[in-house]
Amino acid sequence: MEQYKSDFIEFMVECNVLKFGDFTLKSGRKSPFFMNAGAYVTGWQLAKLGEYYAQAIHDNYGDDFDVLFGPAYKGIPLATATVIAYSKLFGKEIRYCSNRKEAKDHGETGILLGSPIKDGDRVVIIEDVTTSGKSIEETFPIIKAQGNVEIKGLMVSLNRMERGKGEKCALDEITDLYGFPARAIVTMKEVTERLYNKECQGKILIDDEIKGRIDAYYAEYGAK
């Protein structure tokens, strides 16, 4: 595992973003782990988060893109923090763009904020996590409506590796449906590898009992 991935897993734990216990997801599934990206709330946390995203985007997509698109609302600070980090780490200026939930009819009108998207632009989409692909259903037509635009891929923070609408995980379903790669900074397999019976922030977060529950969860809901 690359060092930045191991560091990111520890970072999620430190920021109280990644938790283990008993959780009921929006889907109704009972999960032994939960990720809440809304727990990133400080300047330091957002700056570090942007660096992890920038590293993962660079590893997966290189510099071959022009715009980072963060869907409203959580994608807005993600895109902003990441383009700042990308400039700092890799010396390339990437434009950021997000959508509004409702089109603005005065001042800077339209549905987009940040940089306009124009013909020939290559776009990477950034999100916190996706379990159903619903946000991409909304985001994809907005981006494509801006002109002759190529979507290079999607980057999320965590691949939960569970079934989406079918038998595959949501990221693989997005790739099949829209034709662009969908990647994550880390997968739950990598999280388990890093934390199982290994100390993190002074604790063992995945002991034998939690590991057994994770294995049972994936036996029932794991993607194929």
Order of helices and strands: HEEHEHEEEHEHEHEEH
Mean of pLDDT: 93
Q: Give the helix tally.
A: 7
User: Which percent range fits the helix content?
Assistant: 25-40%
Please report the distance between the alpha carbons of the first and last residues.
Answer: 22 Å
Major β-sheet, in short? Answer: 6 strands, mixed
Number of strands: 10
In short:
This protein is α/β, with parallel strands linked by helices and 224 residues long. It contains 7 helices and 10 strands. It has helices spanning 3-14, 43-61, 75-90, 134-144, 170-178, 188-195, 208-221, and strands spanning 18-24, 30-35, 67-70, 95-104, 110-114, 122-126, 150-159, 182-187, 199-200, 203-204.
Structure write-up:
This protein has 224 residues and is an alpha/beta fold. It has seven helices and ten strands. It has helices at 3-14, 43-61, 75-90, 134-144, 170-178, 188-195, 208-221, and strands at residues 18-24, 30-35, 67-70, 95-104, 110-114, 122-126, 150-159, 182-187, 199-200, 203-204. The strands form three sheets. Strands 5-4-3-6-7-8 form a six-stranded mixed sheet, sandwiched between helices. A two-stranded antiparallel ribbon has the order 1-2. A hairpin with a 2-residue loop joins strand 9 (199-200) and strand 10 (203-204). It is globular and about 55 Å long. It starts with a helix and ends with a helix. The mean pLDDT is 93.
